[in-house]
């Protein structure tokens, strides 16, 4: 998935999707166009053909429209295996995940067309400000991290997700207990009553996300979740203009069991909630029947910030919908030692003062 170039109809410059206005914006002449209104200025002939075909394409679902993937290439990272789709003119040849060099692998082809996209809501500046806020007040951080220019690379990237809808019937048989205790002057009494508890129900799930990319570190990805699906809109490649897109490399098929297991856990805790009032509830038998399960393909927006220090690569990420910012920071050993010495000295001084006060009185 990726980026055809969006040529500005006024000046011919390359337009980008602008998070602030949620429109395509030309950085040269400030022309703004709604993504859904954009038509390529010098491709009228091509577009006519595309429109003539469009009915056919609409029914196919998950297919790219003719011409939509023109100019896209796949960049492949030799180090982490990440595959990134970008426009042919994308200048930077650095992996957004691990900062290693990447090579152009092939012309883009084959992948599914996404069903949904959550467009970028946070700008590059928002991401820089979030970084500044994140490192602020971190006493043990090496000084260089506070310099704005220490960030080597900041890239907006769409991360692929499978979104699952499902309807699952559930049957539960529990052994419930209720415990009553009381005492008189001679004894303590405990009475345990046993109950046969059964519950049946059905639960609907909508848009349960599963990460479809191997390269994006799982811990980082989980920490910037959740994304709010209510902002998702039908996919249009215009929302990708000026950004990268990570190619999905985990098939929906491979994530199915995991997602059904997660839904199963949700069902069990929801069912338990309907059987309150017991001291304990032990599952004797349970049965989940997956009545329907389907998936859609979506792209969610993330800002990735890379920096290096002492030969190590540090990666920070911001959820570009909600602004949630995460990352790992190193500890400056010298600063840590200094802080330790200072607090030790401070403590010793305090102890001496306390002794003096005691001696004085
Ligand atoms: Zn322009
Ligand atoms: Zn890489």
The distinct bound ligands, ions and cofactors come out as: zinc ion
Structural class estimated from helices and strands: alpha+beta
Termini Cα gap: 79 Å
Number of strands: 15
Share in helix:
10-25%
Q: Helical stretch count?
A: 5
Average pLDDT confidence is: 84
Strand content: 35-45%
| CA gyration radius, whole angstroms | 28 Å
Shape: flat
Largest sheet: 11 strands, mixed
Low-confidence stretches: 44-60
Return the domain count. Answer: 3
How do the SSEs run, as a string of H and E?
EEEEHEEEEHEEHEEHEEEH
Question: What would you say this structure looks like, in words?
Answer:
The chain is an alpha+beta fold and 361 residues long. The chain folds into 3 domains: 3-113, no CATH class; 153-330, no CATH class; 333-361. Helices cover 24% and strands 37% of the residues. The chain is built from 5 helices and 15 strands. The strands form 2 sheets. Strands 5, 6, 7, 8, 9, 10, 11, 12, 13, 14 and 15 form an 11-stranded mixed sheet that branches. The chain is flat. The chain starts with 5 loop residues before the first strand and ends with a helix. 27% of the residues are buried. Mean pLDDT is 84; it is low at 44-60. The structure holds zinc ion (ZN) (2 copies).
């Amino acid at each position: 998935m990726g980026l055809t170039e969006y040529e500005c109809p006024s000046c011919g410059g390359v337009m980008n999707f602008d998070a602030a206005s949620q429109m395509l914006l030309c950085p040269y002449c400030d022309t703004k166009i709604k993504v859904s209104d954009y038509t390529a200025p010098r491709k009228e002939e091509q577009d006519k053909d595309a429109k003539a075909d469009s009915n056919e394409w609409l029914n196919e679902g998950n297919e790219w429209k003719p011409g939509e993937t023109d100019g896209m290439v796949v960049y492949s990272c030799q180090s982490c295996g990440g595959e990134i789709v970008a426009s042919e003119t994308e200048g930077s040849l650095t992996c957004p995940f691990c900062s290693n060099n990447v090579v152009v692998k092939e012309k883009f082809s084959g992948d599914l067309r996404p069903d949904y996209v959550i467009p970028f809501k946070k700008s590059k500046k928002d991401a820089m400000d979030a970084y500044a806020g994140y490192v602020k007040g971190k006493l043990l951080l090496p000084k260089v991290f506070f310099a704005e220019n220490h960030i080597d690379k900041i890239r907006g990237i769409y991360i692929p997700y499978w979104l699952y809808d499902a309807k699952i019937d559930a049957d539960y048989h529990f052994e419930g207990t209720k415990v009553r205790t009381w005492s008189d002057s001679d004894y303590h009494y405990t009475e345990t009553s046993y109950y046969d508890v059964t519950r049946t129900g059905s639960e609907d799930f909508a848009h349960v996300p599963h990460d479809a990319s191997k390269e994006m570190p799982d811990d980082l990805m989980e920490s910037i979740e959740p994304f709010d699906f209510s902002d998702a809109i039908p996919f249009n490649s215009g929302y990708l203009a000026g950004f990268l897109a990570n190619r999905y490399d985990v098939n929906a098929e491979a994530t199915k069991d995991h997602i059904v297991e997660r839904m199963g856990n949700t069902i069990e805790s929801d069912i338990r909630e309907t059987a309150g009032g017991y001291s304990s509830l032990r599952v004797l038998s349970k049965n989940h029947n997956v009545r329907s399960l389907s998936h859609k393909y979506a792209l969610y927006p993330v800002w990735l910030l890379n920096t290096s220090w002492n030969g190590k690569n540090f990666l920070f990420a911001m959820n570009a919908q909600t602004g949630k910012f995460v990352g790992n920071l190193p500890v400056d050993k010298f600063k840590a030692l200094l802080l330790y010495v200072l607090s030790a000295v401070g403590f010793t001084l305090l102890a001496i003062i306390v002794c003096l006060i005691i001696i004085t009185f």
